[in-house]
Amino acid sequence: SSSLPPGPRPIPFVGNVLDMLKPRGWATYYDLAKQYGDVIYLSALGQPMIILNSHTAAVDILAKQSAISSNRPEFLMAGPIAGTDRLAPLMQYDHPLKTMRRHFIPFIGTQSSTHLWEVAEQLTQRFIKRLRKDVETSDSEGFDPRDSISWAASAISLRLIYGYDSAVEDDILVHRTRVAFDSFLRANEPSWTVNWIPPLRHIPPWFPLASFRKIGQQGRKTLDALAREPLEYMKKRMAQGTAPESFSRKLFEEHGASITTEDESSVEWASVTLHGGMANTHGSIVYSFFMAMSLYPEIQKRAQSELDRVLHVERLPSPLDRRMGAFPYINALCKELVRWAPAVPSGVPHVMTETSTYRGWTLPKGTYIIANLWGINRDATIYPNPHKFRPERFLTKAQGGDCETEADIPMDPSKATFGYGRRRCPGQYLAELLIWISVAMTLSVYNIECVKGQEPCPSEYENWVISYPKAFKSKITVRSDEAEKLVNSISNDEPPSWMRSPTERS
Ligand code: HEM
């Protein structure tokens, strides 16, 4: 109908399903926006979808109309079949989700949580040390840093959420996190035929299109195990009186000894939600950071000279340096990373629970609302030359950047990258802390270069909800003898005081 937002002409029956399923949907939407404007209507097999390609439209619909735009679409494969709808990002905006989000806030929802600092700092140091081993064993062909990055992301998260101390090599829970994550991503691809043709759900297992059943069941099993096992570990230590502080211990304590099975299940899913949310996004953005540094050597140099001026390669940077504002260029680099490589490029879809209107168009009830976070971050009216990685766009001329005055500094990209409205990411402050410490520590001791002839391509990302650069290798070297000394001085086994259980502390 003419009152719907503009969009490409649907192909009869299949609608725009073909556009939807193209790789890197976010880039497709970005191109469509040039043709049709910032609010685009698509339909896939009769399912209406609206894509928002500007910050203004996303705020207007997802924040200002959040009373009716905060639910999630239900996909058969991700939900009833693979069971990922027990995690917060896929839950409906009802009482259980609101309770979960309330639990998250005191733990990760403030900027001043210094207990997070210590863990972030110590485990990032271990990441730096683990990378040293990769450097040692790699040849002139370089190596793919993804394993070490995934290790760090999981290890930080397992510690904060469960008080679990991951082994540097072959840790079973780190391994389980990766396997469960892979099947989560797979189950959450919208392109499963069963999502679009629901009666397929009932076909027998031997039928050619029935592979979704096996894959979904396998996914459910790995997710259940990941939800259960680290919590069992925490409970056992709690019973022994040796559980270090953690998110899950805190929730258990709040419930007290008379915790019901229902409450226990909600602790289990709140915990694994945070674990998954943290482990996967942090891994993505740090991997993108390695890519950006190998593609932009002059930016890397500038960041390193800022670090050296203050630290003189005598110590590693710490969250306190961040608090003190010691490194404006590193801050700008982190902002640019959050803009250039948003880990959840097409956001998590919302759905309209009532029919509404916007700029005179109808937004029908049941329409999926997709905020193209990647596209909003590449809005050339806010960020000129948007595909270029350029921290200088967030600095004034006096700081060696592009802007005449502070007032000219463009919108902080975290406003888009962490989503909109009532479902906005509750992990933003923790995420920003982890990004900063990883960036600052890595650059203070390592040089990152491309492997000649194998330069990573910044537009090549896996087409998943949480997206990763396609696998690439980097040539990573220790910057100097002083840097080498710093890396060698990192201890692998000393737990931070915060991690010691009350009995161990006394
Ligand atoms: C760079 C890192 C991260 C990025 C880019 C990111 C991005 C996002 C986005 C776009 C959403 C969906 C918002 C919406 O629906 O409009 C989201 C939801 C969520 N994120 Fe993050 N996130 C990051 C890190 C984290 C961390 C570290 C945690 C946990 C410690 C976390 C936990 C969550 C949770 C629980 C939700 C679901 C909220 C809900 O559906 O109500 N995220 N995130």
Could you please describe the fold and organization of this structure?
The longest helix is centred in the middle third of the chain and has 35 residues, at 261-295. It is globular and about 65 Å long. The protein has 506 residues and is an alpha+beta fold. Helices cover 50% and strands 7% of the residues. The chain has a four-stranded mixed sheet. Strands 4-5 form a two-stranded antiparallel sheet. Strands 7-8 form a two-stranded antiparallel sheet. α8 packs antiparallel against α10 (211-240). The protein is built from 20 helices and eight strands. Bound molecules: protoporphyrin IX containing FE.
Unreliable stretches covering 5 or more consecutive residues:
497-506
The secondary structure category is: alpha+beta
Count of DSSP H/I helices = 20
Strand content: 5-15%
Order of helices and strands: HHEEHHHHHHHHHHHHHEEEEHHHEEHH
Number of strands: 8
Mean pLDDT: 91
Shape: globular
Major sheet summary line:
4 strands, mixed
Q: What integer value in Å does the Rg equal?
A: 23 Å
Helix content: 40-55%
User: Which cofactors or ions or other ligands sit in this model?
Assistant: protoporphyrin IX containing FE
Strand order of the largest sheet: 1-2-6-3
How far is it from the N-terminal to the C-terminal residue, by CA? 71 Å
